[in-house]
């Protein structure tokens, strides 16, 4: 058996489990797992470990896992934090392949707890034990009645197996989704609370579930992405296997953006970075927790949408309008009834309007009408998804109301989302049993549909320009400081292929000027990033004497200066752009482009991607930014050199592949000339990860 197969069996279908720290009191947290395993019919061996007792809840107990007579596949650890390391050491001696640690008091408590967790992981690796947790709510596998958890939701009778697997960084959410799923008739394949992710993390678990025949879709509840590269690779594998990965992530607020030195760091906060990360790796992001339960049928069996075109078909105007309004706010395009639909309805004696809703009015409740409209909508090339809204008949005539939806949506090449306006449990159950996405609120319906429409195939990773990389690596490897000055930064950008304005450094007034006039004169100091804001830049100087006068003034104003940067001013400029790069703590390397200048951060208008990107993807970014409309040829005006801009953005994004990690970088402004005349960088910021 392969290592992965052994791990999967030990995690989810263990032949025997050890409950380390098991309590004789079945009402205590540490007594619950044993009671739950018995109540739900787990058929494997259960070994309570409690050095103070000979039996626990009527079952023989052992002082240590080492004393257990037979093999143990999975240990559930519930002892105080200070004893956990010894317990894991004992597991290693016994040959237990995996341990789930419920105990808290580790990295979540601060520095001391973090150090204790690091020691625990080192001990586990030496002992050959894989860890879930610490601070984990446990592992549940309904098909084998494995309930290694203290979660009180397991007081419920019976746990329905199903095709959804959940990985959650919150233990409470395991119970929340298990109970809400049960109320909807939704079952789970596997559920894992990862806790602190000291060892086995979200990414590695997703990778295991890709190969699990029971798992049809993988749901993630994420507070923070802790293993971005591993999760990215696993999600790409899941996409190839036809298993959607759907995430609900906390952290929409951008607290902490002020910690960045660059405008780019403030513009591309954690929310935008996370969105870019999910989209790059085909992870669908839902905005509402309900979406984790309700959206999977939209994805199962349906390829990514070609666009964001939605048809809303209804017999109830108000209920449908509430969904349509939300869809419009989220960026969907509402498609009126195509001619094929209108012709099909004429055959039933029905003429409909050309508004954004396919409103069948009460006539839609007549036999054959709703089904005819839905069939044509699903066949129309100009539609990517269909929302079917059902009114009061959904409550009182469930078979009649949802029968055409069940009939036409089954096996369709595009998804159908059904919103039942009244409280209609029977209709919802019929849809659920048929595998059709069904929703109780218009907001949840719209959110799930947009999550489907926003998901695309994983973005291909561009090839690396090895020659440019080697040149840039040579410069960053010998940088005198993690924070480069403007001249040092501009040379790195130039090595990557970015056009840089001609420049030279002088140390004192009177030195010969060798760059074309007119010039900008700037203080050169690695600790002064936004020189314009401090009045340390002089523009439009067109004589050597003017340069020397400006240099003298600036050196007096900034005695910490390393020199004076004299730089040719760009001519024929049509617009200014900010191009930035940041190593996000969760998403990894990201690149952005937006309107440049001193107001870049105020406008907060930028396109963000994971890095690196190729020129085609960079061009898509440029097309997204509202503030770049003028250089795109807005209202017939001359366009800027968009191809050169895309090439520059792609070149900047290659900071992601350098051997010395770059924390952040920025060109603001990047000057855009007319079409075919190129771009030129006239400012540069670059900060490396300290060695």
In short:
The chain contains 24 helices and 30 strands. It is of the alpha/beta class and 691 residues long. Helix 7 links the parallel strand 12 and strand 13.
Descriptive account of the structure:
The protein is 35% helix and 22% strand. With 691 residues, it is an alpha/beta fold. The protein has a 7-stranded mixed sheet with strand order 9-8-11-10-12-13-14, sandwiched between helices. Strands 15, 16, 17, 18, 19 and 20 form a 6-stranded parallel sheet that branches.
Q: How would the blueprint of this fold be written?
A:
Blueprint: H1 3-12, E1 16-20, H2 32-39, E2 45-49, E3 55-56, E4 59-60, E5 74-77, H3 81-94, E6 98-101, H4 111-127, E7 130-132, E8 138-141, E9 146-149, E10 161-168, H5 171-184, E11 188-193, H6 202-210, E12 217-222, H7 228-240, E13 245-249, H8 263-267, H9 270-280, E14 283-285, H10 290-294, H11 296-299, E15 309-314, H12 317-329, E16 333-334, H13 339-346, E17 357-359, H14 369-379, E18 385-390, H15 393-396, H16 398-409, E19 416-420, H17 425-433, E20 437-439, H18 442-454, H19 466-477, H20 486-496, E21 503-506, E22 519-524, E23 537-541, H21 544-557, E24 563-568, E25 573-584, E26 588-595, H22 600-603, E27 607-610, H23 615-624, H24 642-653, E28 662-673, E29 679-681, E30 685-688
Helix pairs in contact: 3-4, 6-7, 12-18, 13-14, 14-16, 16-17, 19-20, 23-24
């Amino acid at each position: 058996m392969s290592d992965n197969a052994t791990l999967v069996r030990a995690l989810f279908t263990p032949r025997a489990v050890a409950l380390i720290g098991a309590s004789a009191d079945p009402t205590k947290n540490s007594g619950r797992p044993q009671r739950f395993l018995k109540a739900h019919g787990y058929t494997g061996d259960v070994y309570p470990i409690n050095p103070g007792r000979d039996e626990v809840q009527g079952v023989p107990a052992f002082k240590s896992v080492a004393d257990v007579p037979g093999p143990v596949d999975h240990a559930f650890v519930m002892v105080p934090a200070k004893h956990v390391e010894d317990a894991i050491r004992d597991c290693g001696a016994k040959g237990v392949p995996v341990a789930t640690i419920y105990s808290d008091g580790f990295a979540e408590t601060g520095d001391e707890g973090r150090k204790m967790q690091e020691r625990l992981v080192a001990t586990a690796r030496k002992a050959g034990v894989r860890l879930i947790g610490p601070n984990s709510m446990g592992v549940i596998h309904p098909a084998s009645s494995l309930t290694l958890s203290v979660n009180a939701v397991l007081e419920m009778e019976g746990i329905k197996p199903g095709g959804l697997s959940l990985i959650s960084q919150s233990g409470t959410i395991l119970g929340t989704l298990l109970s809400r799923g049960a109320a909807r008739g939704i079952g789970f394949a596997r559920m894992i609370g990862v806790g602190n992710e000291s060892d086995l993390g979200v990414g590695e678990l997703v990778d295991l579930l890709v190969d699990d025949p029971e798992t049809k879709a993988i749901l993630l509840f994420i507070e923070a992405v802790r293993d971005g590269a591993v999760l990215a690779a696993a999600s790409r594998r899941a996409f190839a296997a036809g298993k959607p990965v759907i995430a609900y992530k906390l952290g929409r607020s951008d607290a902490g953006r002020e910690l960045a030195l660059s405008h780019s760091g403030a513009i591309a906060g954690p929310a935008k970075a996370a969105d870019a990360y999910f989209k790059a790796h085909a992870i669908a992001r839902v905005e509402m927790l309900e979406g984790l339960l309700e959206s999977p049928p939209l994805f199962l069996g349906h390829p990514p949408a070609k666009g964001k075109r939605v048809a809303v078909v209804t017999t109830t105007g108000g209920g449908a309008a509430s969904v349509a309004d939300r869809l419009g706010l989220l960026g969907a395009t509402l498609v009126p009834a195509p001619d094929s639909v209108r012709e099909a309805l004429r055959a039933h004696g029905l003429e409909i309007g050309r508004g954004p809703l396919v409103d069948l009015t009460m006539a839609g409740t007549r036999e054959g009408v709703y089904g005819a409209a839905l069939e044509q909508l699903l066949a129309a090339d100009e539609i990517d998804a269909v929302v079917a809204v059902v009114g009061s008949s959904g409550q009182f005539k469930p078979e009649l109301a949802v029968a055409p939806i069940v009939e036409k949506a089954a096996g369709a090449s595009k998804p159908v989302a059904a919103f039942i306006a009244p409280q209609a449990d029977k209709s919802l159950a019929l849809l659920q049993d048929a595998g059709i996405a069904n929703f109780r609120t218009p907001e949840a319906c719209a959110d799930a549909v947009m999550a489907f429409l926003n998901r695309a195939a994983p973005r291909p990773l561009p090839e690396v320009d090895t020659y440019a990389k080697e040149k840039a690596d040579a410069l960053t490897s010998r940088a005198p400081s993690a924070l480069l000055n403007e001249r040092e930064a501009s040379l790195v950008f130039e090595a990557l292929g970015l056009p840089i304005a001609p420049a030279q450094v002088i140390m004192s007034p009177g030195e010969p000027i060798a760059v074309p006039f007119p010039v900008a004169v700037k203080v050169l100091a690695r600790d002064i990033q936004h020189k314009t804001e401090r009045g340390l830049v002089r523009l439009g100087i067109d004589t050597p004497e003017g340069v020397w006068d400006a240099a003298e003034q600036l050196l007096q104003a900034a005695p910490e200066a390393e020199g004076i940067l004299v730089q040719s001013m760009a001519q024929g400029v049509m617009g200014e752009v900010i191009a930035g790069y940041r190593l996000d703590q969760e998403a990894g390397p990201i690149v952005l482009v937006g309107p440049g200048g001193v107001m870049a951060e105020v406008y907060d208008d930028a396109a963000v991607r994971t890095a690196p990107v190729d020129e085609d993807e960079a061009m898509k970014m440029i097309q997204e930014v509202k503030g770049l409309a003028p250089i795109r040829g807005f209202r017939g005006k001359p366009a800027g050199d968009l191809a050169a801009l895309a090439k520059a953005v792609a070149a900047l994004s290659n900071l992601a592949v350098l051997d010395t990690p770059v924390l952040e970088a920025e060109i603001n402004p990047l000057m855009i000339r007319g079409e075919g005349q190129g771009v030129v960088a006239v400012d540069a910021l670059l900060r490396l990860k300290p060695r």
